[in-house]
């Protein structure tokens, strides 16, 4: 089962999201929070696999909660679920350790896909957000490519293979099958890759892989 904690200050939104998640028999909403501070407290109590965070919440907003969860409970995977798709929010969420960024206006199936992908160790961006991230990267592409290639050059050939598959959106389990490795070995490679790239999470590593030319659009 994928254990999910849902945090949103609007009870009607929580009920709607919970009903969508309930259509997947392998997803279980173990707790609900009304604000970011309560989300952190409940995450410590229930140890969910995935935390869905709204951005605008009282006491502690979703972005601040994501950053605190990344520090205190790095094993918990955070997905931002919001109506706000401004670039500033996307950049802050990913920089603060979020593994996914979903829009409430998206197709309900996208929520299920995103939760499953993130729980499986991959990163997931709403397609609309992903298009903007790629477009933004193209702005300073030459400079960013050079910097990304310099960082990737510090990796071993095997680590570059793993990074390319991370950039393609594969989970640790999928990468292990593709490269005929133990999943624990892949996790160790990913940990080393994040450290050498100075990346906070898989999303940032995936962006570096794209910029370095390891994966296509």
Overview of this structure, please?
Pfam families: GerE, Response_reg. Keywords: DNA-binding, Phosphoprotein, Transcription, Transcription regulation. InterPro entries: CheY-like_superfamily, NreC/VraR/RcsB-like_REC, Sig_transdc_resp-reg_C-effctor, Sig_transdc_resp-reg_receiver, Tscrpt_reg_LuxR_C, WalR-like. It comes from Saccharopolyspora elongata. The structure is a single chain. The chain is α/β, with parallel strands linked by helices and 217 residues long. It contains eleven helices and six strands. It has two domains: 2-125, Response regulator (Rossmann fold, 3-Layer(aba) Sandwich); 143-212, Winged helix-like DNA-binding domain superfamily/Winged helix DNA-binding domain (Arc Repressor Mutant, subunit A). Helix 2 runs parallel beside helix 3 and helix 9 (172-179) packs across helix 10. The chain is 57% helix and 13% strand.
Set down the secondary structure blueprint.
Layout: E1 2-7, H1 11-21, E2 27-33, H2 36-46, E3 50-53, H3 62-72, E4 77-82, H4 87-95, E5 100-103, H5 108-119, E6 124-125, H6 127-139, H7 141-152, H8 157-167, H9 172-179, H10 183-197, H11 202-211
Parallel strand pairs: 1-2, 1-3, 3-4, 4-5, 5-6
Helix pairs in contact: 2-3, 8-10, 8-11, 9-10
Key phrases:
Rossmann fold; 2 domains; alpha/beta; 217 residues; 13% strand; Arc Repressor Mutant, subunit A; 6-stranded parallel sheet; 57% helix; globular
Give me a quick take on this structure.
Helices cover 57% and strands 13% of the residues.
């Amino acid at each position: 089962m994928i254990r999910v904690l849902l945090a949103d200050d609007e009870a009607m939104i929580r009920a709607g999201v919970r009903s969508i998640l309930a259509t997947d028999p392998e997803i279980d909403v173990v707790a609900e929070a009304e604000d970011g501070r309560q989300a952190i407290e409940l995450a410590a109590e229930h140890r969910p696999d995935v935390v869905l965070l709204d951005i605008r919440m009282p006491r502690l907003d979703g972005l601040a909660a994501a950053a605190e969860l990344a520090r205190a409970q790095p094993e918990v995977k955070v997905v931002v679920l919001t109506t706000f798709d401004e670039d500033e929010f996307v950049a802050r969420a990913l920089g603060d350790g979020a593994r996914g960024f979903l829009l409430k206006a998206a197709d309900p199936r996208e929520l299920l896909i995103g939760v499953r992908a993130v729980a499986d160790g991959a990163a997931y961006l709403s397609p609309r957000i992903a298009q903007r991230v790629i477009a933004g990267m193209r702005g300073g592409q030459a400079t960013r490519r050079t910097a990304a290639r310099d960082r990737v050059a510090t990796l071993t050939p095997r680590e570059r293979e793993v990074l390319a598959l991370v950039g393609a959106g594969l989970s640790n389990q999928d990468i292990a099958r593709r490269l005929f490795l133990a999943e624990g070995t892949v996790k160790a490679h990913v940990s080393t890759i994040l450290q050498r790239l100075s990346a906070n999470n898989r999303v940032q590593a995936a962006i570096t892989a794209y910029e370095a030319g390891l994966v296509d659009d």
